[in-house]
Specification:
There is one protein chain. The protein is mostly beta strands and 91 residues long. Helices cover 0% and strands 56% of the residues. It contains no helices and 7 strands. The protein has a 7-stranded antiparallel beta sheet, with no helix packed on it. A hairpin with a 4-residue loop joins strand 3 and strand 4. The radius of gyration is 13 Å and the shape is globular.
Length: 91
C-alpha cells in the first residue's frame, strides 16, 4: 500500500497484495494528531470489506526518518503492529 499524507488524514494511493480489504482512495489513517516524542494518535482503517469502513484507535511512532510503527488492533480486537518503511523510486 502506498500512503499519501494529508493534513490530518492519509489516503491509500496504490494497492498490491490486498489482504485488508481497503480500496484505492480510502482514508487509511484519519484524524492524525501529534502527541509527544515522535508519537501520533490516529484512527486506523482495519477493514472495508462490507462497503463501509471500520476504524480502530492506533498509535504511530516515528522510529527513523524512513520508518514508522503503527500499533493498534484488528477487527477481532487482537493486537496489530505494522512497521512502515519509506521506499524510493517511481511508484
Amino acid at each position: 500500500i502506498t500512503v499519501v499524507p494529508g493534513f490530518s488524514d492519509a489516503s491509500v494511493k496504490t494497492i498490491s497484495n490486498n489482504t485488508y480489504c481497503v480500496r484505492e482512495r480510502d482514508v487509511l489513517w484519519k484524524g492524525i494528531k501529534s502527541l509527544q516524542g515522535g508519537t501520533f494518535s490516529t484512527d486506523n482503517l482495519v477493514n472495508a470489506c462490507q462497503g463501509s469502513a471500520l476504524y480502530k484507535p492506533a498509535t504511530i511512532t516515528v522510529l527513523t526518518n524512513d520508518e514508522i510503527r503503527l500499533t493498534g488492533h484488528t477487527t477481532a480486537s487482537t493486537e496489530l503492529i505494522q512497521t512502515w518503511k519509506r521506499v524510493s523510486g517511481a511508484q
